[in-house]
Structure of Copper homeostasis protein cutC homolog:
Amino acid sequence: MSKRAVLEVIALGVEDAVAAQAGGADRLELVTDIAADGLTPSAGTVAGIRAAVDISLRVMLRPADGFAAGAAEDVDRLVRVAGELRAAGAEEFVLGFLDADGGVDLAAVERLAGELDGCRWTFHRAIDHCADRDALRKQLDGLPGLDTILTAGSPTGVDDGLPTLLAEAGRRRSGEPGYEQRILVGGGLRLDHVPTLRAAGIDAFHIGGAARPEGWERPVSVAAVAEWRGALDAG
């Protein structure tokens, strides 16, 4: 029997968080403004969710739509926000920034990683929009706290990214530098993708819309999360 896979569910508020935990989620990604693909939630939201559930939370650090960190003062502001979120109970985070050429904005990422002071964090789907995935991974290698890469393998989703995901899973199994982080698959992920991904050794899955069969205007469905939990456990 393979080890239990991680199921991460996007939560916008307490109702989502409680439903996700009840359905069997292992972890939440906390965001606001899903129309902008998920921005940084307020410290109050984080504190409320932390009080309502006892599963792991990863909090988004993303000030605006897109993958640019902004000017130095924007990064300064995000560093201050990260401190406020930690004070509100956040212990794990999600972030990722690209420069104008599509490479990793290493200065911004290193600045935030330093502020997080060893907290575990995910580099999010900015990797799917970068100019060179391999170069980005190797530039990030060794940053404190980085333990996960959230990716669909392609900017258009898992359908197109599946070959990349399988190849990167193989490079992780071989211990190649830059590929040690856990692969968390999300972005157009469907249940029918799961057997192939599990067979490749991928053991972490991220869902947002799939946890909300009635759309983003409705909260997370306990039944939908439980269906995913069952599918992952069967794998």
Notes: The CA atoms of residues 98 and 105 lie 5 Å apart.
